[in-house]
Amino acid sequence: MPGCLTSSLFWDWSNGTFFDALFEPGRPRDESGDVRIDAADSRVGLSGLHRWIAGRSHSLRGNQPSSRTDALAQRSLGCKLNGTEYRSGHSWSDPSDPCQLRQCRAGVITESTERCFAHCPSPKSVPGQCCPKCPGACRWGHGGGSGTSVCSRVTCPPLDCPPEERTRSDDTCCEACPPRRHCTFSGIKHAHKEEWRPNPCVKCSCEDGVTYCQRERCSNSLWCPQGYQLRLHDDACCPKCVEHDAVCTVFGDPHYRTYDGRMYNFQGGCKYLLTRDCRQDAFTIKVRNGVRFNSGFAWTQMLAVFLGKSRISLLQNLKVKVDRKRVALPYNRPGVFSIRRTGRSVRLRAQIGLEVVWDGDSFLEVTVSSKYKNRLCGLCGNYNGLKSDDLTGSDGKMYSSGEEFGNTWRIGSKRACKTSPNINTRPLCGRDPRARQRAHRVCSVFYGHSFKACRLVVPVQPYVSSCITDMCDCPVGRYCACEAVKAYWSQCSRAGVRVAWGRQERCFPPVKCPEKADPVLCSNTCPRTCSNLNSLEPCPTLCDTGCLCNGGAVLHDEECIAPERCPAS
C-alpha cells in the first residue's frame, strides 16, 4: 500500500544505509508534490516483515545556519542535540523509543517514525528493536552482483520439547531441543523415540533414557467369514483371518480335483508336472502314472516333491526316499520339511506352506497356503479362484478336454509312457452288463445314510461317476471304490461335516498303534508331539485314520510318552 510523504527516511537493505525519499532523484510525486512510497519497495522488508519510515522534516534543537553559504558548505554542516554532536548524514534512533529515527542532514535533524507490518500470525517482540520478528523464520544473505543482496529463508524443523527447554546458539538460526538420552535393552542401545519388538507380542520404545514396553493381547472371540480361517504367521503375535488353504486331489483312474474345485479325468500314462510355483519356484511336484489291471487305464504310481535342493520321493507301499536314499519315518529336516506316518498315509509338511498326503497306492492330496494364489501351474490348475480357466495348458491355450489339457503338461520322453492309445475309445465295463451292474451297486454307498449330511454340502455326483469308472476297471475280488470314497470323505471333512461311518469302513481298516495309544477312524491331523507342545498354530479341521495317545501323553518317535520326558530342543 502506498503512503504520501513530504519528508521520509528509509533503510536500504541492499547497502545497510538510510535513504531519504524526498531527496532521491526520480521519485514519483502526487499532484501536491508529496513523494509516493510503496511499502513493497524491493529495498524494504526482511524476515517476514514490511516496514517504512514516515514523518515530516522539522528542526529539533540543532544548529541553524545564520546565513546562506555555498552548497558545499551547507551540505557539510553538522548537528548538535542534547550536547551531542552529529555529522551530516549520520542516523540514529531515540534510546527511549526505538521506532523514532533521527538523521542529521546539512545542519537539520529530521525525525521519522518506523512502522512495521508482520506477515505471520504471532510476531515476537525483541528488546531494543522497533519491529518484531516472525519466529521460526530466518533469512541469510550473500553478496550478489552490482551490490545486490540475495536472501533465502531457512525453515526450522518442528520441535517435540516444551518451549522453555528450547535453546539457540549464536551461530545458528533455529532453536533446538536439548540432547536426549538413549536406552539400553538386553544389552542393545536404542536411540530416543526408537521403537522395537523383543518378540512378536511385545512392543517397546525409548523415551529420554526410559524404556516403555507394552504387551499385545489377542482377542478370544475372533471369527472368520466363510472361506477364511485363523492362521498364525511367524512374525505375528495373534492369529488373523486368511483364506482357506487350497487343495488338489488326485485319485483312482486318475481323477483330478483342481485347487479351484474343477473335476476332470485324465488317463495319461507318462510323467507329468502335477503342480509348481511358476513365479518364484518355491516347489515343484511331478507324478508318474503307471498301468494297473489292464493297459487301457492309468493310475498314479509315485510322485517326487522338489523343495530347493531337496528331492522327496513318495513311492508305492508308503516307501519314502530323500535325495534318492531310502529313509525311515519319522524323518525331519529342521526348518525345511518333516515326513511322518499318519494312519495308513504318509504326510509331508514343508515350512513354505505346502503339505502332501500319499496313501502309498494312488490317492494323493496337495495342500498349499493361500499365499500361492495366482502363482501355480500344472495338472492341479492355476489357483486363481476361477474354475473356468483351470484347463489352461502349458502352452497358454484353454482346453475343454482333460485329455488334451493333461498332455500339454507331459515331461520326459514318450518312451516312458505305459498306456495304449485307445483310452478314450473303450466303453466303461466294456460289453459286460454284470460288471456294470456290480460297479453301480458298489458305488451306491455314496447315496447311503453315512453321507447324508455331506451330500447337502458337497456335490456327490462327480465322485459317483469316478467310482463307477474305477470299478469298471477293477478285477473281480477287489474293491476299487475306496479311492473315490476317500476323496469324498476328505472333502466332507474339509467342509466341516463328520461322516457317520458305515459300509465304507472297509476303505479305512484299523491301524496298528504303539503302546498307550488307541486307533481312531477320525483323529487330529496335527497330533500333540514333543515338537509342537507350545505351538499356537491352528490345525485344519480335517481328520484321518490314526492313533491317539491316552492320558495326556504325546507322540515322539512313534511312541506315546509323558510331556516331561520330551528331549530338550
UniProtKB/TrEMBL annotation:
Localization, UniProt: Secreted
Residue limits of the VWFD domain? Answer: 246-418
Q: Which UniProt keywords apply?
A: Disulfide bond, Repeat, Secreted, Signal
Main localisation, per the record?
Answer: secreted
Q: Which InterPro entries match?
A: Kielin_Chordin-BMP_Reg, Ser_inhib-like_sf, TIL_dom, VWF/SSPO/ZAN-like_Cys-rich_dom, VWF_dom, VWF_type-D
Gene3D superfamilies referenced in this protein's UniProt entry, alphabetically: 6.20.200.20, Complement Module, domain 1, Laminin
Family matches, as PROSITE patterns: VWFC_1 (PS01208), VWFC_2 (PS50184), VWFD (PS51233)
Q: For the VWFC domain, which residue ranges apply?
A: 181-242
Q: Provide one Gene Ontology cellular component.
A: extracellular region
Superkingdom field: Eukaryota
Output this protein's name.
BMP-binding endothelial regulator protein
Query: What is this organism's lineage?
Result: Eukaryota, Metazoa, Spiralia, Lophotrochozoa, Mollusca
